[in-house]
Amino acid sequence: MSSHAPHPVLLDAARLAALLERIAARIGPARVVTDAAELAPWLVEGRGLFQGATPAMVEPATTDEVSFIVAACAEAGVPVVPQGGNTGLVGGQVPFGGLLLSLRRMSRIRDLDPIDLTVVAEAGCTLHQVQQAAAETGCLFPLSIASEGSCRIGGNLSTNAGGTAVLRYGNMRELTFGLEVVLPDGRIWNGLSRLRKDNTGYALKDLFIGAEGTLGIITAAVLRLYPAPRAHATTLTGLASPEAALKLFQRLRNVAGDALTGFEILPRFGMETVLTHIPGTTRALAGDHGWYALAELTSTRRDDDLSALALEVFGEAFEAGEIEDAVIAASEAQAEALWKLREALSDAQKFEGGSIKHDVSVPVSRVPHFIAEAARACEAHMPGVRVCAFGHMGDGNIHFNLSQPVGMDKAAYLACWEGFNRIVHDIVAGLGGSISAEHGIGLLKREELPLYKDPVALELMAAIKAAIDPKGLANPGKVLPGG
Amino acid sequence: MSSHAPHPVLLDAARLAALLERIAARIGPARVVTDAAELAPWLVEGRGLFQGATPAMVEPATTDEVSFIVAACAEAGVPVVPQGGNTGLVGGQVPFGGLLLSLRRMSRIRDLDPIDLTVVAEAGCTLHQVQQAAAETGCLFPLSIASEGSCRIGGNLSTNAGGTAVLRYGNMRELTFGLEVVLPDGRIWNGLSRLRKDNTGYALKDLFIGAEGTLGIITAAVLRLYPAPRAHATTLTGLASPEAALKLFQRLRNVAGDALTGFEILPRFGMETVLTHIPGTTRALAGDHGWYALAELTSTRRDDDLSALALEVFGEAFEAGEIEDAVIAASEAQAEALWKLREALSDAQKFEGGSIKHDVSVPVSRVPHFIAEAARACEAHMPGVRVCAFGHMGDGNIHFNLSQPVGMDKAAYLACWEGFNRIVHDIVAGLGGSISAEHGIGLLKREELPLYKDPVALELMAAIKAAIDPKGLANPGKVLPGG
Predict the structure, then answer these.
(1) Residue of B362, B445, B456 with shortest CB distance to A189
(2) Which ipTM did the prediction report?
(3) In this structure, which CATH number among 3.30.420.40, 1.10.287.110, 3.30.70.2190, 3.10.20.90 belongs to the domain B231-346?
(4) Is pTM beyond 0.90 here?
(5) Which of A30, A213, A269, B84 could serve as a FRET partner for A206 with CA atoms 20 to 30 Å apart?
(6) Which residue range or ranges hold the FAD-binding PCMH-type domain (chains A, B) (predicted)?
(7) A21-56: per-residue pLDDT in tens?
């Protein structure tokens, strides 16, 4: 993978020193980090796919400081790479010679309004911090992803984060009313609107969300809250196939409507992997099943009997031969135990050796077809490879992960990543799908984009990038092919 | 208002004739309309604020024909103005010398998938046509606006249309998964994605939605459907003030959550105007009230007792002294009668003489403050003016309409529009609001934009416009100030 990394930007040492001095004079010398040991953890991303390099990490505390730094870098012709919690999965947060700009000190919740159902959060707030602030006022901030304890709002916005509640509440984009952005030349766009309706020009907010820092640096956002649900039903169903899971999904959606907030699937191999490797997990259904579906129902009405609703649907599905067994959590602890079976899967897979991962989406109706075809093709490509296709079926978003054949050398296996990419992504493309459903493009998928994205879309992206970042200093080398 | 109209584009007669001939050869001479009588209805918008002019109206039937026409116009340097149902309220669809491109023949529903909950509709489909197609398969396309019988999907997309169900389902942008667009040079961007999650680059779809044709012509879209609701409760409440309405809104939202799909308010003057002028309307509550709130609850669960839910909330609100009276529709006919009281208001106002209108939004929590302050200021500015502030309180979107003083000359009254704009829009801006909540900018508010929009946002818009439409031929003179 490291062959994908762009060449480091070469900077003139004297000019660089002058730039860092200028920045230190503004934000304090302690906030310009050049010590190699201090930098090290911020230069490599979670999976270790990319090793970054930077002359310094700067840690501004205010929007004005970010603006000053970016303007100074623009004058000096120095690229800037923004970083939040460094939890991104595609390398978008890794610098290659440019200045690393950490948003972590900008972690203030500026405002929370339970009538407007809005929270104004700075980019460096952790997702958990925002969830907590909402919960304390009887509200819900619905974004929920595995890294929520350490990922930051700026990164959630820049990658348009998804997760397990998108089915009901949408991605980060749908959860955002307004933004504050520092543009690549240092100008500040104050778009911190709290409005639910505003048709006064182009959708600038939507453009910066998901741009992975290539159009500027998001410093704060107005996020959308919901009234906190007061009733829940968490259910696990055993069934024969993704086709059966799709049928159950339709049944639940048609009756429960918005009350259906999550619908996840995992295969038997995934369930067994979790039960084998993750302490404290226990089998929730008596028998073995080819597939499992985890469905979550919620309601703002305290006395809403969602268990009865689920039971009724499960009864009909059982009669129709579509499901084999089901359990409805009788307590919050049981609900958490069911979710753990799903959420521990990524960690559990690490015990099974190398894992080649694909974060893809297809139209919901094509999920069973996709899983069957991609599994067949991958097993033919490498006999013994263990397919673990799981995830957000309700959104058509499958994490199509491939565990190495038992006993194979891990490095030799991971060297086959490109071949599997081609197989899986070609099938995805044939079904009108996406090669990155929720993780983004970053560096990891940048060179794949031209293979699958409409060429006119790529031309439009390049034109917009050139218009907003004409010097190419905003997180260069990310997202845009050949950029 | 007509002083706002840009100067007609002057075209060289011979070059124009050659261009029209070229287009006629491709789409058929009958589809190049130059007859003045045939053109007349398409050159003036509903309120008669602008009188347009065009050398010809062309009527392509396919995306390829649109592409051909736009490319030919780009070569000849001729502007193109797209038009759907000609129901826009800000003049965006009126040509001033450019070619008028009607999308009305592109009215095919290409596909409808009740599993994916998607419909692929061409730009010329009426909104009603899409609603009907959805209903026939047990689905709901939730966009609902007064002009739904004649407005077209392309216009709904280009103005990011809103309406009475935004509270629950969002604007047109939130109801769109993908687009097909003909760019200003004739290239076709095929972005007809059906995906609920796709993080592969910039949010191009969102950029074209709401751009009012200034970045290209939307020819088709993948729209989002919902399972059709099976239970409804339509309610009308009499209360003392917008403050009381806001309290009722919070009570309903906190308990009903997503079941609350609409929350509209109207003042006593509005209610009396409807009852006086609109045949077939009847008083729904016995007494008189200062304000009225219409709340709609829906659910996918057939046996969901929403009336009981509403009754419970109304009981608490009554106990707290927040509401004076309430009625819950006992039949579909009664529900329609309640909605008519709200929906007939725009028509009813015409009987009260000239009406100066503002389509504004503020944060939901500021609606009562806004209405009080703006009413006071307008009444001080012109004693006798009759304030009719009504609309989508749940979205913070108020139609702040001013009926002329009784007996005043209509033309003299309408000449005061600019003065009222400044008063109302200054108050809106002071509350962090928008001067166009759902109608767009078009020509009507183009020169006001610089007074209220963040200057950096305007610079970004101009840069994007120049990048995508460097020749400035896509609906010139609209949206962008001085454009």
Answers:
(1) B456
(2) 0.96
(3) 3.30.70.2190
(4) yes
(5) B84
(6) 50-228
(7) 999 999 999 999 999 999 999 999 888 889 999 999
